[in-house]
Amino acid sequence: MIIKYNIGNIFKEKKLFKIIFVIIFLVCSKLVYAGPFSDFKAGAGLSEELASSPTERRNKPNSDSIVQSREYLDPKNSEVWNDLQNELLGENANVFFVDDIKLIMQDYIEEAHKVPLIVTLPKRLQNFNKFILLIENNPIQQVISLKPYRAIEALGMNVRLEDDSPIRAAVLDNEGNWHVGSKMVFVASAGGCSTPACDPAIEVCKVGIVGKIAVKEYKREAGAQRIKLKITHPMETGFVVDLEGEVIPEYFIKKIHVDDKDGPIADITTYAALSSDPVILLDLPEKGQSVRVRVMDSHGLEFFSYKKDNSM
Prior knowledge:
Layout: H1 2-33, H2 65-73, H3 81-89, E1 94-97, E2 102-104, E3 108-109, E4 115-120, E5 130-135, E6 142-148, E7 154-159, E8 165-172, E9 177-187, E10 213-219, E11 225-231, E12 253-260, E13 263-270, E14 279-284, E15 292-297, E16 302-304
Parallel strand pairs: 1-9, 3-9
Antiparallel strand pairs: 2-4, 4-7, 5-6, 5-8, 6-13, 7-14, 8-9, 10-11, 11-14, 12-13, 12-15, 15-16
């Protein structure tokens, strides 16, 4: 009886241990993977968690956010898409809304003044002619326009969001057709373009050296390369008011040229919808040599990631 009792206890203890282990594992998994990138989703759909986290902008008590996102993403329901298309893509442009251009970012945004996103391109579009990123409901709707000189697999950047908005990545192919990938994003606290990235009334704001450029290169599989640029710049939108009630004039990076020993990689036109101290990421299928960056801002100042007298 004693032996049976001990074996039974051991069995129960082992079973209890397994249960405790599973609970600890799940809790730790949440802790490890939780964070600003933990619920990144590819494509236009929204994650199911939105159904349990309605805000004032969503229907209560049961959120219809996923249904709403499909409605908002439909260009026929947009109040501004036709104007944007005519102005930026062309009045008679052939435009196709596609699923294989993926916008990877959070569905639900807390910090609207600095939102990271990555756009991945299908192989059929990696040798594109032009790329434009648009945020429909921003006061500054165009974020960047990029002209590539080599194939690009993916692009990344950090942006400002003023409010809930469809975000569109438009890619022009070599036959003159535009391919547009879309994603609906909800913003918890609106004002990413009209509020300061750093509020001196409540925190110590560290101001970096304007024009400082950091360039990092990363090896990827099969000889591919990732280029990551960070440029110290306030990227003022012209919509922010200081503590004295004065409007801070717009001041932003306008042009970024990226090249290496083999020649140009990309020319990028940028706007104040990029976050302060913007980060640009480029994924290339082939590795470059000694990447260099030249930047010009809206005051006409030029900055280099290398000594100017060494330029090609």
